[in-house]
Write a structure and sequence with these properties.
With 102 residues, the chain is mainly α. The protein is 79% helix and 0% strand. The protein is built from 3 helices and no strands. The chain is elongated and about 70 Å long. The protein starts with 5 loop residues before the first helix and ends with a helix.
């Protein structure tokens, strides 16, 4: 472990004990444990997301199935684009009113 032997680890432990004190060591240990657990969970989530992305990439390389009941991607996007345009127009109006009120 980083070329540290038992004597070096003991010296480091004594220095930490002197700096933080015996009462704070359990708190520090809990904090380090929680941090390690969170890092482990984040790395697990990232691996799962990468696997999911790869799986979706494999599915994306396959030709899409034609289904008469489903619309195209453009049909799905059009209502969203209209909503975005309406929101942008409202935001522009609010900016104009804001400038007028100054």
């Amino acid at each position: 472990m980083f070329g540290l032997g038992l004597p070096e680890m003991i010296v480091i432990g004594i220095i930490i004990l002197l700096i933080f004190g015996a009462k704070r060591l359990p708190e520090i240990g809990k904090g380090l444990g929680k941090t390690a657990k969170e890092i482990k969970g984040i790395s697990r989530d990232m691996k799962e997301a990468e696997e999911k992305k790869q799986k979706q990439g494999d599915e994306a390389t396959q030709p899409p199935e034609k289904d008469e009941g489903k619309g195209t991607l453009l049909d799905d996007i059009e209502p969203v684009v209209k909503d975005i345009r309406e929101i942008k127009e409202k935001a522009d109006k609010l900016r104009k009113w804001g400038r007028l009120l100054r």
